[in-house]
Specification:
19 helices, 41% helix, binds iron/sulfur cluster, two-stranded parallel ribbon, binds cobalamin
Length: 396
């Protein structure tokens, strides 16, 4: 404690940059500082660190590693915490138990990683080049629509590897604690990225930017350095509410509020059980995720396509027929989708989703024949959805 006081005293004499001074522990109580933070204090290294210059270098390294934007925020998420708790209390998370499991911790970065002072947020574009036109696929009921984010390699691995590299570069420069995340922990990623000036939150609840619309992933580094924070951008949704109007299941119940239980992304990816019967016709031919609220967003006209080879379309998933995908046996499912985010839902759920889409497809001989091949499937979940689809075509 003595060394901290000493450091603080030096700060008052002007030895610190203002940024670092504000982060020193108060005299009255000692927050959960990490070992590396304490070592910095003890070695009296803080006064020598130019955090403004370090922040600029971190942003430049991030861009060199393929992130389109890098920003920094503090850890205060009080308003978001209230909304999160209300969302959970309303049951809008449905069966996503992992969202409720950590409660308020999701909105308290320093409880997830003690000592965290800043979050470095990054975004990486994913809209693939050379993908079949989305509107054409959505309009053709015999084809399978797969979200643009899932046409290539699983983004978790891609982003995690890059974030680890960035964290290593930071650690090589200065002793610190860095923890990297991308959709892998109780983290309010959109809220943090918004604070870090990577964009604003659209009424569909996703983050979007003037340069890239919303076709990007987010990731973070929790860090125990008092880096200078960025100033959030203004919201540019204005009077537009196109995303709310277009949503096939009316899942966006009010601006910035999503009832996940109605969202097609939830129904096709997160929900493991039977899809509510009343929502099945609204799913159309979307077999994995949904992009409608993004496709209609005017800001996505400005979006750039990614040049990341990992996000290039694999296995013709941008333009496959439902019958063709439904014919895959389990071995084919595993071999074609290894390394893809789709693989995570498993074969049974994959067949369930395609059965619903086939139920919504035009009743061609090919569609009916495909459904009949699975009417005796060993999985009760698959059989039930196939039965529903056949009944929808008036063939019980
Ligand atoms: C759970 C989850 C889902 C759920 C629920 C989505 C949701 N909006 O909550 C489901 C399965 C439906 C889903 C779908 C999708 N997801 Co998702 N998902 C997540 C996850 C894991 C957590 C999101 C979360 O915290 N939800 C909790 C609720 C409470 O948060 P919220 O809806 O954002 O609400 C906040 C605000 O709206 C605000 N708020 C609430 N009420 C009010 C009221 C007012 C008046 C105001 C001002 C504010 C306000 O406070 C809340 C708390 O911050 C994140 C990754 C992460 N760890 O953050 C990815 C993430 C958000 N998803 C992502 C993606 C890509 C998608 C899809 C596009 C995938 C697809 N194509 O199918 C869809 C889009 C659907 C949509 N319109 O949101 C990306 C978004 C990237 C971006 N550009 O923003 C993320 C960040 C993953 C990543 N690492 O890239 N997802
Ligand atoms: S992803 Fe689809 S279902 Fe979900 S909110 Fe957007 S438009 Fe609605
Ligand atoms: S469609 Fe309109 S309201 Fe929705 S996020 Fe885009 S600009 Fe905002």
């Amino acid at each position: 404690m003595q060394c901290v006081r000493e450091a603080r005293r030096k700060g008052r004499r002007g030895g610190f940059v203002g940024q670092a001074y504000r982060e020193l522990p108060p005299f009255g109580g000692m927050p959960a500082y990490t070992t590396s933070a304490m070592i910095r204090f003890m070695q009296n290294r803080v006064p020598q660190t130019d955090y403004n210059a370090l922040a600029a270098r971190i942003k430049a390294w991030g861009k060199a590693l393929g992130f389109q934007a890098v920003g920094i925020s503090d850890t205060h998420l009080d308003a978001a915490e209230a909304h999160l708790l209300q969302w959970l209390a309303d049951g809008h998370h449905g069966a996503m138990d992992y969202m409720a499991k950590h409660g308020a911790k999701r909105a308290r970065p320093a409880e997830l990683v003690p000592g965290t002072l800043r979050i470095v947020s990054v975004r990486m574009d994913y809209y693939p080049q050379h993908a079949k036109d989305t509107h054409e696929v959505l309009a053709d009921g015999s084809r399978a629509f797969i979200s643009r984010y899932a046409l290539g390699r699983d983004y978790h691995k891609v982003l995690r590897n890059r974030l680890e590299k960035l964290a290593r570069q930071i650690r090589d420069e200065i002793e610190c604690q860095c923890r990297v995340y991308t959709d892998s922990a109780p983290v309010l990623e959109v809220e943090l990225a918004q604070k870090a000036r990577l964009g604003w939150r659209g009424k569909h609840t996703l983050l979007l930017s003037r340069e890239q619309g919303s076709w990007f992933f987010l990731g973070e580094i929790y860090i125990d350095l008092p880096l200078p924070v960025d100033v959030p951008q203004d919201n540019h949704c204005g009077t537009c509410n196109a995303c709310m109007t277009i949503c096939p299941t009316q899942a966006i119940t009010a601006p910035y509020q999503l009832d996940a239980r109605r969202c097609i992304s939830y129904l096709t990816i997160e929900l493991k059980d039977s899809i509510p019967v009343e929502l099945r016709p609204l799913i159309g031919n979307r077999v994995y995720g949904c992009d409608d609220c993004q496709l209609v967003c005017p800001w996505n006209r400005f979006a750039q396509k990614t040049t990341e080879p990992d996000f290039a379309v694999r296995n013709g998933l941008d333009d496959a027929s439902l019958a063709e995908l439904f014919a895959w046996d389990e071995t084919t499912f595993h071999s074609r989708l290894a390394g893809s985010a789709i693989h995570r839902i498993g074969y049974e759920q994959w067949l369930r989703n395609i059965a619903v889409a086939l139920g919504n497809a035009p009743a061609t001989p090919e569609v009916l024949a495909a459904l009949r091949t699975r009417s005796q499937h060993p999985s009760g979940l698959v059989r039930e959805h196939v039965e529903w689809a056949l009944q929808r075509h008036s063939i019980g």
